[in-house]
Amino acid sequence: MATEFNNRQAYFNYFIDNKYEAGIVLLGTEVKSIRDGKLSFNDAFCLLESNEIWLRGLYIGEYKLGTINNHIAVHDRKLLLKSREIKRLQVATKEKGLTIIPLKVYINDKNLVKVEIGVAKGKKLHDKRDTIKQRDNDREIKKYLG
């Protein structure tokens, strides 16, 4: 059973340089909500604070069968990475002016929730237009070939 949620807007708004797989600190009801498909990437981004990476703005809906111990839908969640990966991300964000964004949230084979984050550079308007044009061309080619 592989549940996977992709951040489609990330690929439209950013050029993705490097990708990293990170664990995420979640509560039990958050995991159950992810399994139910209640997750949204609207306004989600990653932030570096004191050698830790935090995921902000990720919406995980409340678990419908949760009790008073149910989680808050939007709050900061800590990402789990190796220290050398965090140092690479610090260098990329400070020196090169890049940003860190979540690309995908999925449940792996060991039933652990993982987040794929990417080091990204924002696209300009003309780059977005090129992306739309390329997508339309690919669609036309598929239509004629298949």
Layout of strands and helices, then pairs:
Elements: E1 4-6, H1 8-13, E2 14-24, H2 28-36, E3 39-40, E4 45-49, E5 52-56, E6 59-60, E7 77-80, H3 83-95, E8 99-107, E9 113-122, H4 125-145
Antiparallel strand pairs: 1-8, 2-7, 2-9, 3-6, 4-5, 5-7, 8-9
Low-confidence stretches: none
- The CATH superfamily title: Small protein B
What portion of residues belong to β-strands?
A: 25-35%
Order of helices and strands: EHEHEEEEEHEEH
| Rg calc | 17 Å
CATH class: Mainly Beta
Number of helices: 4
Mean of pLDDT: 88
CATH architecture: Beta Barrel
Q: Give the termini distance in whole angstroms.
A: 30 Å
**Large-scale geometry:** globular
Total DSSP E strands? 9
> Strand order, biggest sheet?
1-8-9-2-7-5-4
Please estimate the helix content. Answer: 25-40%
For this structure, the CATH topology is Small Protein B, Chain: A
Briefly, what is this?
The chain has helices at 8-13, 28-36, 83-95, 125-145; strands at residues 4-6, 14-24, 39-40, 45-49, 52-56, 59-60, 77-80, 99-107, 113-122. With 146 residues, the chain is an alpha+beta fold. It has one domain: Small protein B (Small Protein B, Chain: A).
Q: Could you please describe the fold and organization of this structure?
A:
- The protein is an alpha+beta fold.
- The chain has one domain: Beta Barrel (Small Protein B, Chain: A).
- Helix content is 34%, strand content 35%.
- The protein contains 4 helices and 9 strands; from the N terminus they run βαβαβββββαββα.
- The chain has helices at 8-13, 28-36, 83-95, 125-145, and strands at 4-6, 14-24, 39-40, 45-49, 52-56, 59-60, 77-80, 99-107, 113-122.
- The chain has a 7-stranded antiparallel sheet with strand order 1-8-9-2-7-5-4. Strands 3-6 form a two-stranded antiparallel ribbon.
- It is globular and about 55 Å long.
